[in-house]
Amino acid sequence: MITHVTDTALWVAVHRGRESLRPDAMYQDPLALRLAGKRGEKIARKMASGAFMGWMMSLRTVAIDNLIADAVSLGVTRVVNLGAGLDTRPYRLTLPKSLKWIEVDFPDMITYKNEQLAAETPTVSLERVALDLSDRMAAQAFYRTLGQSGEPTLVITEGVIPYLENEQVANLADDLHAIPNLRYWIQDFRHGGYRAGVPKMWLWIKMRFAPFKFSVPNWFEFFAGHGWRLKKEHLLADMARDKGRPMPTVGSLGFLMMVMPKDKLEAYNRSAGFAMLERAGDN
């Protein structure tokens, strides 16, 4: 069972690894199951809704992979992954060797990842920073160090924003915008928040120690108010269609989708996706 938000990294890693074992895998992530370990597998079993989560995580992974490639083509020379968890993109993606990649997460997560991947060689220039991002003053100090070089930088917050309060997200958006060379920002999004459409009992039982908090009617309007505008998006429904991966209809989440009226289901599916934002006013 999930007892802290960091456990979600183990949960997600299981599903990334399982995708790699499929004959029609959309990507290969051979390190994911090793990082997830037995605890990750146990969490995945306890959380249930495995088919739905696997579907969602696989499409999210592919979408963000593509958005990273887009950012690099736009001239980004550094990537900063906030709340990186057990992400392995610096090892599995084909990226310029000169690309600088910084992973930021809780100290225990950084220590675990360093130990598990000590013998692996990243394809980019990789650095890890132990930092509790909820300590705003410490986070701001870190962001200022990112501004010292002036190099064009992409920020990633994959799976991070839903667990923050609205005020914390507003502060994060403002703090990142205060650093001019932080040009792009990749996020997963759901208008209305990630609690929308999910059974309340499942949220209470499964996610009570790592609850979804951030909730706004229109995700992009919120960030526009803090200096960030939409650059590119991949809607979840479109990706599912294009990749030939229809949403599974098993488990409690799947049942909810089955009984939802067609118009509401369409609206629900198209309210979620993956986006790259850019600083408003920049070219």
Entry summary:
This protein has twelve helices and seven strands. It has 283 residues and is α/β, with parallel strands linked by helices.
Radius of gyration: 18 Å
Largest sheet: 7 strands, mixed
Span between termini: 45 Å
Let me know the number of strands. Answer: 7
The total of helices stands at 12
Specify the structural class: alpha/beta
Shape: globular
CATH superfamily: Vaccinia Virus protein VP39
CATH class: Alpha Beta
User: Strand arrangement, largest sheet?
Assistant: 3-2-1-4-5-7-6
* Quaternary state of the chains: single chain
Order of helices and strands, N to C? HHHEHEHEHEHEHHEHHHE
Find the CATH topology.
Answer: Rossmann fold
Give the strand content. 15-25%
- The residue ranges in which pLDDT falls below 50 over 5 or more consecutive positions are none
Q: If classified by CATH, what would the architecture be?
A: 3-Layer(aba) Sandwich
In total, the number of domains comes to 1
In helices, the fraction of residues equals 40-55%
Let me know the average pLDDT.
89
